[in-house]
Specification:
By secondary structure, the protein is α/β, with parallel strands linked by helices. It has one domain: Zn-dependent exopeptidases (Aminopeptidase). 41% of the residues lie in helices and 16% in strands. It is built from seven helices and six strands. The protein has helices spanning 2-21, 63-80, 97-106, 157-175, 188-191, 208-214, 217-237; strands at residues 41-46, 85-87, 109-118, 128-132, 179-184, 197-204.
């Protein structure tokens, strides 16, 4: 039994390494998807907005404002690298989840990155975490059952993991935030994505120390730099999907 477990772990690491480090990866494209990732548009989705403030921190700071700021910083960095970039909202507007997905499709999104901040009843909770769509037939990280067994976003299961790996790694290494890992959930923007997609949680506004950092411009710049590094690494390693 011990030998079997050790072999299973070795096989798991080998498969994961092949998935994460292969320089050219192929995925079946969804209808309307861009054939060349390095020629496609990166769509950044600042969470919430308008009448929906998202999480509200201890000091009263709103998630919608912080994440619009982070998304704008990522956009400027990507544009400086000649990457076409769009925002699902560019100001304090109310944008439905369906409209966010529709806009990404109409812009020919090659990557979709939804940017959020977290909150929890446990004030000690802290750190960065990222979410991708669960693979077909698998439960979410919370273990909850779902009536959506297969979604549009499942056409990109391998690419979703690759994108999450790079963006999450960039956030954690660049900020020093606690690493809460890559998780799986059937959020609507992930279900309806017609390209590789990830939802990143930049930290907990319910944690006093982490909220203080998120309010700092220099810290948000580090977050943006890490997310951008992850996106650029994804684009550099992937020629087709």
């Amino acid at each position: 039994m011990l030998a079997y477990c050790a072999l299973s772990r070795m096989l798991h690491r080998a498969v994961l390494a092949a998935l994460l480090w292969a320089p050219v990866l192929l995925w079946p494209p969804a209808p309307g998807a861009q054939p060349l990732l390095n020629e496609a548009t990166v769509v950044l989705d600042p969470g919430h907005g308008g009448t929906d403030p998202g999480a509200i921190g201890i000091s009263g700071v709103k998630e919608k404002d912080l994440e619009l700021d982070v998304a704008g910083r990522v956009r400027r960095r990507l544009q400086a690298s000649n990457i076409r970039t769009r925002l699902t909202r560019s100001g304090d507007q109310t944008v439905s989840l369906r409209d966010r997905s529709t806009r990404a499709r109409s812009w020919g999104a090659g990557l979709f990155v939804s940017i959020h901040a977290n909150s929890a009843a446990n004030a000690a909770a802290r750190g960065a975490e990222s979410y991708i769509l669960p693979a077909h037939g698998f439960a979410s990280t919370s273990g909850s059952a779902s009536r959506w067994s297969t979604c549009d976003g499942n056409a990109f299961d391998a690419a979703n993991m690759l994108l999450a790996f790079h963006t999450h790694k960039g956030m954690v290494l660049n900020t020093g935030a606690d690493d809460r890992g890559i998780r799986r959930a059937r959020f609507q923007v992930l279900r309806e994505a017609n390209c590789p997609a990830v939802l990143v949680e930049c930290g907990f506004l319910s944690n006093r120390a982490e909220e203080r950092r998120l309010r700092e411009s220099a810290y948000r710049e580090k977050l943006a730099e890490g997310i951008t590094q992850g996106i650029l690494t994804m684009i550099g390693q992937t020629t087709r999907y």
